[in-house]
Amino acid sequence: MSYKFGKLAINKSELCLANVLQAGQSFRWIWDEKLNQYSTTMKIGQQEKYSVVILRQDEENEILEFVAVGDCGNQDALKTHLMKYFRLDVSLKHLFDNVWIPSDKAFAKLSPQGIRILAQEPWETLISFICSSNNNISRITRMCNSLCSNFGNLITTIDGVAYHSFPTSEELTSRATEAKLRELGFGYRAKYIIETARKLVKDKAEANITSDTTYLQSICKDAQYEDVREHLMSYNGVGPKVADCVCLMGLHMDGIVPVDVHVSRIAKRDYQISANKNHLKELRTKYNALPISRKKINPELDHIRLMLFKKWGSYAGWAQGVLFSKEIGGTSGSTTTGAIKKRKWDMIKETEAIVTKQMKLKVELSDLHIKEAKID
DNA sequence: CAGGTC
DNA sequence: CCTGG
């Protein structure tokens, strides 16, 4: 079967599919080794229905090709959606040259490798990262796909591969149980997923909102980052690390650095970040007013987050993405055969990043406009 | 132990 | 604590 692909000019140093789709941000892109393309299901634009989307980067590495299966009449909508999903309004070259290299020597010997932060669907991001706790990427990938195939809706089957939607909070509450999830190998996270889905259904009803996406976006409205994180941590299985992942990748709070063991190691080893008694006391006082934060936040890790924000600025989360990729190197993703394979780290030759027309034409983000959360 | 949370 | 590499 062949499709009519749309095209988007984008240099590989600005976007490298292998480096962003299989590096632990998203867990549901399927890589077809033979066709050298990626596919998944996603909601396009403001729609609630899921479509199968196929992506590939051509040999010259300067064109991103895309198609939504069975939706060929609406190529522009997909193009607009992908520009938001990949955040093509943000130039990595600009961040390297004008922000990170001048302020951080570690970036001087690095170059943009097409590693960027995605704007993912927040509900899927929340559940995916609940699954990520104390876990490895290949199992997280299996779990996310298991949620879709067991509790999502069948969208279509292509070349023998069945594509499902990511289940909504209602679908999870009505179709899944903790016992069933345990059988499927979710371990102790089974309870977190069920309870989070239930609470989201309840929260949405109280807010009179039907869409998971819209609801989670609505908690950012007129809210500071600290309040958004407090709200996210009201869900079971969501601590500061998971909440920050949702803020960064699901709610596009670009300055948020999720602090895990790796980032913590980088911070101490390469940046000599360490909190003194005053710092920690200040943070404890600050979170005293927020009952859940007070309970869940580790002041020492939160201090690292703040110091890295100070170091890297309003796109600190993106800087973390770059360094993190370097730290853990290649990782695994799923393929059409279901096998989890080691991924080759996709290095880019040192070419001058070309700011494409699409980059200059800043994407209209009107329907995504969420009041920028203030970060200190 | 694995990109934490209870 | 679940599970698996």
TrEMBL record:
The answer to whether the entry has keyword Metal-binding is no
Keyword GTP-binding listed: no
Q: Entry's Pfam families?
A: HhH-GPD (PF00730), OGG_N (PF07934)
SMART domains in the cross-refs: ENDO3c
| Record GO terms (molecular function) | 8-oxo-7,8-dihydroguanine DNA N-glycosylase activity; class I DNA-(apurinic or apyrimidinic site) endonuclease activity; damaged DNA binding
* GO annotations of cellular component type: nucleus
For this protein, the record's Gene3D superfamilies field holds:
3.30.310.40, Helix-hairpin-Helix base-excision DNA repair enzymes (C-terminal), Hypothetical protein, domain 2
EC numbers listed for it are 4.2.99.18
Q: Which domain of life is it from?
A: Eukaryota
- Look at the named UniProt entry and state the broad enzyme category this protein falls under: lyase
Residues in domain HhH-GPD? 131-306
What reaction is this protein's catalytic activity?
A: 2'-deoxyribonucleotide-(2'-deoxyribose 5'-phosphate)-2'-deoxyribonucleotide-DNA = a 3'-end 2'-deoxyribonucleotide-(2,3-dehydro-2,3-deoxyribose 5'-phosphate)-DNA + a 5'-end 5'-phospho-2'-deoxyribonucleoside-DNA + H(+)
Outline what the protein does. Answer: DNA repair enzyme that incises DNA at 8-oxoG residues. Excises 7,8-dihydro-8-oxoguanine and 2,6-diamino-4-hydroxy-5-N-methylformamidopyrimidine (FAPY) from damaged DNA. Has a beta-lyase activity that nicks DNA 3' to the lesion.
Q: What is the protein name stated in its UniProt record?
A: N-glycosylase/DNA lyase
Q: What is the originating organism of this protein?
A: Saccharomyces cerevisiae (strain Kyokai no. 7 / NBRC 101557)
